[in-house]
Input
Amino acid sequence: MKAVKTPEQIPALFAEAWNDYDAQGIADLFAEDADFVNVTGLWWQQKKDIFKAHDYGLTVIFKNSILKIIKTKVRYLSNDVAIVHAKIKLIDQSPSSDGVIPQPRTTVFTFVVKKENNSWLCYAAQNTDIQPGKETFIRKENGEYEAVNYRSDSASKAKEPNQ
Output
């Protein structure tokens, strides 16, 4: 594994490994006891589990997909700890088991990274789907979730700041 010189490289290297369908390359960005929360709230708590989840995902769910970095922002908490946010677009996800063709979607990744031995390593990551114009989710009686906006005025619909 090559050294990660800056925190900004973490999302870029994540996307590069994803686009190469390289689950080991993704896992190599993480500490042994790292945490990863995916878009549906699945929580993997070890590097080996992060590898297994991405190995399966890149073989089945995302086998033809591509990630594109849209924007990256770094906030240093100290000289050797940073939070990295990355807005990322996902295209060409595999059709679902019932034949639904997924459309492109945009997410925000949050990476908590620490510099060790002159290389940055990820200790925690979370991926959140962006639901344009929505503020929250509600859970319906049938157990399904729906993204909703509580504002009634269409002019004041929820907007993402700093797009």
Q: What stands out?
A: Residues 133 and 162 are 14 Å apart (CA to CA). Helices lie at 9-19, 23-27, 47-59.
